[in-house]
Specification:
The complex is a heterodimer of chains A (about 200) and B (about 375). Chain A has about 200 residues and is of the alpha+beta class. In chain A, about 30% of the residues lie in helices and about 20% in strands. In chain A, a hairpin with a 4-residue loop joins strand 3 and strand 4. By secondary structure, chain B is of the alpha+beta class.
């Protein structure tokens, strides 16, 4: 199959020159490599010279239990159609990663977004610290796992009270009883009881 | 001449959705420009981490408001790759029908949207009337008009209703018979052609710099770079269609490609209706409660060809009932943010709305 030869081509290309921590063939059009932080730029440059000229996606994942962030770069080659995921782990304390702006100019806004939502710094990208989407944000970056949206909303917005009383206009007793029974059942099921 | 700051905000008929372009103009010429997103940020990526895999089905169509089906397809494909689910044969064909109907609807909407910045509202009314017929078909198939929640992991929610083939065929015949009229009212119309010809040119060298995909890329590089062709999903490898391309990307050629894609979509739907086998449309995800369904560990990037380009979901599972991280690659991210900043300066004020319309900048998927 043509697509599998492309996968083999990428995998030999990368594995011969770089120390790959983990390789995974996700599907017939996608492969992922986990590499060291220092090798990302060289690897991306190599892939760009070999035809992976489009940066499809750049983002981060917060692995709070390992105290690490994982950065993901996805590049695409239209002649040899394979998406290559390149993942690398950086420390969660004072996270910083050199920008890939000279290699892929399209990363400019992706890096700004990652800084805004995870707090990762990108030295080399002159505008990475400008706010993009969250205007006037005054808390820790929101896509971190230790950010609690409910606590934030309780602290910032007025609490809304919901009344649960029904007005029984026509004295429909049967409906009222049914409704209460149903409510009891729902609460029982939610607490782990039987239907 | 004095430099002025001008907003092309959500109130302008040429601006699609809740974003605004800040322009610094001297006379009629834009000197600097940038897009201000954030008015539509709803925290979907955080919200998806807080919902189960099955709950998320109702959340994802909202990511792109006008084209919800591609979201469902990308999400379903990602979950199927992670959980190693084989989709029934008939479901693939039904998915293709829904996706292509959605593509016709969004291309019509974008084509009609060209009417507002160029001042020809007639084409907008025509296009929206036809989009309404598609929404009627969707209502019969899925029960909903805009957010269908029809394509789910494991297949589609239910089979096509009896007799829907006639509705679809009637609509396609009707649309095809008026195709020439559509061209005449819009891109062949002498009042519009001077506005869209040779304006907002996207040179082929900058396509890779920006990362633009879809019609913007194909109209510039003259290659059939379509995900349906190069990495076929569903059953796109079993239908015959052409990918229209061009070598000079101005507003007119991009709109022209949209109309040509419309014809290809019509042909794909007809082939689907003819080739579709009988059988099941959905495999059950689990034998127990669907809310407690877990997805195996893994990272996957699943992408589909939307009307604006490569639309993808990056999904991470840690083996739990909730996704660990879902990232959305909005198809209009490059042309919306970097494209406006770099390639709008030097053009006239009235061309800004043409860039937004013909490149397809969709603010909900930039904000998420």
């Amino acid at each position: 199959m043509n697509s599998m030869t492309n996968i083999k081509y990428v995998s030999s290309l990368v594995e011969n020159r770089f120390k790959v921590i983990k390789k995974e063939i996700v599907s017939e059009y996608q492969i992922s490599f986990e590499v060291d932080k220092d090798e990302v730029h060289r690897l991306l440059t190599l892939l760009k010279l070999e035809g992976w000229i489009q940066l499809s996606y750049l983002s981060a994942i917060d692995w709070i239990n390992d105290n690490e962030y994982e950065l993901v770069y996805i590049v695409m080659n239209w002649e040899k159609p394979v998406h290559v995921q390149i993942r690398t782990r950086i420390s969660r304390e004072n996270p910083s990663m050199d920008s890939i702006l000279p290699i892929f100019p399209g990363c400019k806004y992706y890096e700004r977004e990652v800084h805004e939502f995870f707090g990762v710094k990108f030295p080399g990208n002159p505008e990475y610290a400008k706010q993009l989407i969250l205007e006037g944000w005054d808390d820790i970056p929101p896509l971190r796992k230790d950010f609690d949206p409910r606590a934030y909303s309780d602290a910032h917005f007025a609490k809304r009270e919901y009344t649960e009383t029904f007005v029984n206009l026509n004295n429909e007793k049967s409906k009222q009883v049914k409704r209460e029974k149903r409510k009891e059942r729902i609460i029982r099921v939610r607490k782990g009881g039987k239907k | 001449m004095r430099e002025l700051k001008l907003f092309l905000g959500p109130q302008h008929p040429g601006m699609h959705g809740n974003a605004s372009i800040h322009m610094f103009v001297e006379g009629d010429i834009i000197k600097r420009a940038f897009l201000l997103p954030g008015m539509l940020h709803r925290g979907f990526e955080k919200g998806m981490e807080r919902h189960t895999w099955v709950n998320n089905i109702s959340l994802i169509p909202r990511v792109c408001v006008v084209e919800p089906d591609i979201n469902e397809m990308a999400f379903a494909m990602g979950v199927e790759t992670l959980a190693n689910i084989t989709v029934p044969e008939r479901a693939h064909w039904i998915r293709m029908i829904v996706l292509e109907l959605a593509r016709i609807s969004i291309h019509l909407m974008a084509y009609g949207g060209l009417g507002s910045p160029t001042g020809n509202y007639t084409m907008m009314y025509h296009a929206h009337a036809d989009r309404n017929s598609i929404l009627n078909i969707f209502e019969k198939i899925t029960g909903h008009r805009v957010y269908h929640q029809y394509i789910v992991p494991g297949g589609v929610r239910k089979d096509l209703p009896v007799g829907i083939e006639k509705d679809i065929n009637d609509f396609l015949d009707d649309l095809e018979s008026r195709y020439v009229e559509y061209r005449d009212i819009g891109i062949e119309n002498p009042t519009i052609v001077p506005r869209i010809k040779d304006t907002i040119v996207l040179p082929s060298e900058v396509v890779w710099e920006l990362g633009v995909t879809g019609i913007g890329m194909r109209s510039a590089v003259n290659k059939a770079y379509d995900l349906r062709k190069v990495m076929p999903y569903a059953r796109y490898d079993q239908v015959e269609f052409e990918v229209p391309v061009a070598s000079y990307s101005d507003a007119r050629s991009r709109v022209d490609l949209k109309l040509q894609e419309l014809v290809q979509s019509i042909s794909i739907i007809r082939q689907c209706l003819a080739k579709m086998p009988e059988g099941d449309v959905r495999v059950p995800l689990s034998r127990g409660q669907s809310m407690r369904w877990t997805v195996p560990k893994g990272h996957v990037y699943s992408c589909v060809e939307s009307s604006r380009g490569e639309f993808g979901y990056y999904m991470v599972s840690n083996g739990g009932t909730h996704p660990y991280r879902v990232g959305v690659r909005g198809a209009s991210y490059p042309q919306g943010l970097l494209g406006i900043e770099k390639y709008l300066p030097g053009t006239r004020i009235d061309d800004a709305a043409l860039w937004v319309d013909t490149m397809g900048v969709c603010s909900p998927e930039i904000d998420r």
